[in-house]
Please model this.
Amino acid sequence: MLGDRMASCAFLVLAGTFFSLSYSYPPETVEYVRFISGVLIVISILLFIAPPHKLRRIDLGIIASYEKVLTLLMLVAYVVIIPRMGYFTSSFIFSVGYMYVFERKGLAKHVMVSLIMLLVLYLVFQNFLNVWFPKGWLL
Model:
């Protein structure tokens, strides 16, 4: 308990230091630093008031289930391949793969849904709104 409160005080001092240093930054760049410092201040105060060992234990199996971890890994892979393969190709691969992993039937249906979704996105954003997506090897 004493260790939690000491850590809380250390984080509070660190966040306060960052917050006070943000006044020397240019005005257009301070929002992020002040937001993160404010969040750290609030969390430090909460840690000081109610240390985690007094709270009810959280079952990590609920938070980090197999499906959630797999989704996170697939999203990270998707973000990594967008610059290399382009938005439409990587989005097609991701959406078909995601639907197949979590539904396991109807691969033809997954391909059709992904193609229709990407066609609508293409028409709306690139033709109507003139917003261009990253291009890669194929599209």
